[in-house]
């Protein structure tokens, strides 16, 4: 599985965790019935789950006239994944994390999601 596909699967798993508050290991086991779990996918899911509050705090500090609770779950999950990569995965260039997040937002969010995600992530790295 390439990293783009792993990010898509991570988005699906983490979205479910956010909505249903499942255990990350259980959620990955459920998806493993239909998809092989690679190390990058596992790293992202476990990392975002572990650092969720810290990631939310980082995202929240960049929001103007918004709070993390007002962000749609899809965009919030994408922002968490990208913020986790930026803060904790040094082997991934920041630009790659941001571009991947924008692609996911354009695919899974609404017509403004990509610009919103780009704006928030740009503030995080500055």
TrEMBL record:
Give the domain of life.
Bacteria
List residues of the NusB/RsmB/TIM44 domain: 4-125
**Record's InterPro entries?**
NusB-like_sf, NusB_fam, NusB_RsmB_TIM44
UniProtKB keywords: RNA-binding, Transcription, Transcription antitermination, Transcription regulation
A Pfam family cross-referenced in the UniProt record is: NusB
**NCBIfam families this protein is in?**
nusB
Function per UniProt? Involved in transcription antitermination. Required for transcription of ribosomal RNA (rRNA) genes. Binds specifically to the boxA antiterminator sequence of the ribosomal RNA (rrn) operons.
Q: What name appears for this protein in its UniProt entry?
A: Transcription antitermination protein NusB
The primary gene name is: nusB
């Amino acid at each position: 599985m390439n990293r783009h596909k792993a990010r898509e699967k991570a988005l699906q798993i983490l979205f479910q965790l956010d909505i249903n508050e499942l255990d990350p290991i259980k959620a990955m086991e459920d998806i493993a019935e239909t998809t092989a779990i690679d190390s990058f996918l596992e790293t992202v899911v476990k990392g975002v789950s572990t650092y969720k509050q810290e990631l939310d705090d980082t995202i929240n500090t960049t929001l103007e006239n918004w709070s993390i609770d007002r962000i749609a779950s899809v965009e919030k999950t994408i922002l968490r994944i990208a913020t986790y990569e930026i803060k904790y995965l040094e082997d991934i260039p920041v630009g790659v994390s941001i571009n991947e997040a924008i692609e996911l937002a354009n695919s899974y969010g609404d017509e403004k999601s990509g610009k919103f995600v780009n704006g928030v992530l740009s503030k995080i790295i500055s």
